[in-house]
User: Fold DNA repair protein RecO from Jeotgalicoccus saudimassiliensis.
Amino acid sequence: MARGFNKPRNQFITLRQGYLEALFTYNRFKGMGTLNDVDVTERYKNVNENFDVYTHASYILEVITRALEDDIAEPGYYRLLKKAFKLLDEGNSTYGVTSLVLVKMLPAYGGQLNLGSCAVCGRNDYKKYSHYSFKYHNVLCCDCLTDDTLERAIPVSNRVLYFALYLQLVRLDDINSVKLSNETGRQLLKFIEVIYDEYSGVYFRSKKMIDPQ
Ligand SMILES: [Zn+2]
Assistant:
């Protein structure tokens, strides 16, 4: 509880302006703690001043917080959130960073993304990847397309499939930047959203501010 939070002039006023990372200090006293102090540790200036970046930050925050369960700490989610906000703030591809978060959070929503090798021939020549199949729940290569294998498969650009695979495999600590053209980024996010629709059925409200068409 933050005393005086709604008064116009109080020491917590910064909390009402956009996204910040802050260190909260509580006094725990009979049940509900009382908020004593707030130290802002990150201001995310670019995120808060640029509406387009802000909408992606909102989407990312919703995807991560919706996966949290009461009373279970998820330090991995927190690290992902911090990394994503940092990358957004540093001016990286918004679609790329949002896609990174969606790919990393997919297992928490019961989804799967199998891009390691073609479902039919088993080869892992990603330059030949051309479709994603919801019959095999796996990627398909261009050598293995028949009426039968194409049933419940969607065409996805080779570039998008490659980036999705990269985001899935890369360790957070190894990412220093996410650079993608806007067009590839949009297609990548759209593809991953199709995967979410297929497996999770969850609807993220903040997604509607972003149009990856
Ligand atoms: Zn194949």
Remarks:
- The chain has two domains: 1-43, 50-213.
- Residues 1-43 form one domain.
- The chain has six helices and five strands.
- Residues 114 and 138 are 5 Å apart (CA to CA).
